[in-house]
Design a protein that fits this description.
By secondary structure, the chain is an alpha+beta fold. 37% of the residues lie in helices and 21% in strands. The longest helix has 25 residues.
Length: 175
Amino acid sequence: KAVVSTQSGHYGRGIYHNKDKTFLVWVNEEDQTRIISMQKGGDVKEVFSRLASGIEAVGKSVKDASGKEFLIDPKYGYMHSCPTNLGTGMRASVHVDLPGWTKEGPGKLEARCEQLNLQPRGTRGESGGQTGITYDISNKHRLGYSEVELVQCMIDGVNRLFLEDLVLQKKHNMF
């Protein structure tokens, strides 16, 4: 059973989610359709698996209802309208505490993320700013890479940042 959540009151716009809020379909915001899989913990494989089966199920539902399919290019991925997501549209992210990097300052973390093809954000979204030591770290690129490559880039980069953070915590006598 789907649950719709709309705050704007606009017809045809909303977020549909499962009971656990681990799978969501966001309709008519920046993208025409944004499909999201998320959960607490570190099981990225489970999140990605749920996403893949969810995309397939939503695509089948759209095709059954309209006879149309999602537009996908074998090289560039899914086609949609939000220019920041051109390509696969895959933004894989995790929330991670990085107290050592926080102590170093936001400029240093941003520079390191750039080297790792990552994008740091605050936990309040794209323009919500940073508070505390928790960051939303995601793959920087969307175009020219497969979904698997982008998820692996995020996993490898976050693992590296975490290990570097332990060294920085020691440098700043944080434990």
